[in-house]
Amino acid sequence: MLPEAEIGEFLTCNKLTISTAESCTGGLLSSKLTDIPGSSNYVNYNVVTYSNKIKNKVLNVTEYTLENFGAVSPECAREMVQGLKNLTGADICVATTGIAGPGGGTPQKPVGLCYAAVMYNDIIEVERILLNPEIPRKEMKEHFAAHTLELIKKVLHL
Fold it and tell me: Number of structural domains, the chain?
């Protein structure tokens, strides 16, 4: 069974909702979750917050975090899910932020770096994902989304 189908089954059985705030995955995670029939019963509100301005304005990621840690940081991912929870009230909130390349990387934050965060029962789990920087952008986004789906499963104990 696809991870998104397992997640959907769990959400349906437990009458829970999920929301996503995506940067580096550009809506791909949302697309995968909504590919499952019946997803309208549990997908609450999904948003692509690609720019720092929108991360701040929509999700209330602080300017302090963006200036001192950057958009690609565990701190930003954590604030993204907290802001998403405040915005949507969803039971499970998920965020991705990273560098899909081919440009934009630095020695400290290379292409292929992503932080995924999942908030459930007021507990936030943030995972650092680091992929080969030579992977093409579209494939990189697929890997980021797949890793994030696995993180959701882990947090939900599936």
Answer: 1
